[in-house]
Design goal:
Elements (H helix, E strand, L loop, with lengths): L1 H15 L16 E6 L12 H13 L4 E3 L16 H22 L4 E3 L3 H4 L5 H11 L4 E5 L2 E5 L2 H5 L5 H18 L6 E5 L20 H13 L4 E4 L6 E5 L2 E5 L13 E7 L3 E8 L4 E3 L4 E2 L1
Helix pairs in contact: 2-3
Bound molecules: zinc ion.
Length: 299
């Protein structure tokens, strides 16, 4: 009897629209859809407050994509573990994280937000402690999700670049990634996308290793995996300006900063339209004016 009453209440609530649909179920229509990619809000680097981050959130709400993903450096915390030993600095990192979350939680009332770890979030040489701090606040450092028959993979690029501070974690990520790719071979995805903070490379796949790209050895390993597994694109940040490369069928897309640009590109986000066959993307400034056009890319 009680069970029947509860079932009736739930049914009535659904009919009345009183129970919101899970965010993942909010859009199921077929056809092209859009996601928004941001990078490097890096609160509070050269910013007195979170104004630009909140403006970014307002823009993404108005664009109403399926989801928003931020390619790392959510905060401007110390990118060396030693900086975290200073309690004054450590307290300021907590404030930066809180400012980021105040915006991302506001957006999550409208659509899902996915985070990627940057060197300012987990340091350039992540340790289990720094990874735990990040995961406690922002969610897993590496993970995947499916959306509209595509696979989206988030990797932690600092650990890929320098596993020495957390070798066990680095091994876990690599094994997890290879297993995921193996499993994905049996699924007929429209696209596979990877997101990581560091760009693979900026001008050439054979360029020298440096602060702004992936070291050559891991770059080659990853590029082989992306090619062998038919990835459509790899999205990154870290540069604070836009950069594009195409390696065979694979697009390497680096998005400028939504809050603190370091170059001629203004503050902005990238709108990516995804259809079964193609992706198309444009970088918009915070006033929603398209800055750079990209033609439709055939797979
Ligand atoms: Zn960075």
């Amino acid at each position: 009897m009680i069970k029947n009453i509860i079932q009736s209440i739930i049914l009535l609530s659904i009919i009345c629209g009183c129970i919101p649909k899970r965010l993942s179920e909010r859009k199921v229509a077929s056809g092209p859809y859009k996601i928004v990619v941001g990078a490097d809000p890096q609160l509070f680097m050269r910013q007195k407050n979170d104004l630009f981050w909140q403006q970014t959130i307002d823009l993404v709400i108005s664009l109403n994509p399926d989801f928003f993903i931020v390619c790392g450096d959510l905060t401007n915390a110390g990118n060396k573990a030693s900086r975290w030993e200073d309690p004054v600095r450590a307290a300021s990192y907590e404030k930066q994280a809180a400012a980021y979350l105040s915006g991302s939680k506001r957006l999550e009332k409208h659509l899902p937000v996915y985070n990627v770890a940057g060197n300012h979030d987990v340091t350039l040489r992540p340790t289990p402690e720094r990874l735990a701090w990040y995961e406690n606040k922002f969610g897993k450092a590496w993970y995947s999700f499916e959306h509209r028959n595509s696979l989206f993979i988030v990797l932690e690029s600092n650990l890929l670049r320098d596993p020495s501070g957390a070798p066990q974690k680095a091994k876990e990520q690599k094994e997890w990634f290879k297993k995921l790719l193996q499993k994905s071979k049996h699924k007929n995805y429209d696209h596979k996308f990877a997101f990581m903070h560091h760009p693979m490379c900026l001008k050439s796949v054979s360029e020298k290793s440096g602060y702004y790209n992936m070291p050559e050895k891991i770059r080659n390993e990853l590029l082989d995996l992306f090619h062998d597994n038919n990835f459509t694109a790899v999205f990154s940040g870290h540069l604070h300006k836009n950069n594009y490369m195409r390696v065979g069928k694979l697009e390497l897309i680096t998005t400028g900063s939504c809050c603190v640009p370091l170059g001629k590109d203004p503050k902005g986000v990238r709108i990516v339209e995804i259809s079964k066959e193609h992706i198309q993307h444009k970088y918009y400034n915070l006033e929603q004016k398209p800055i750079l056009d990209k033609p439709i890319q055939k797979k």
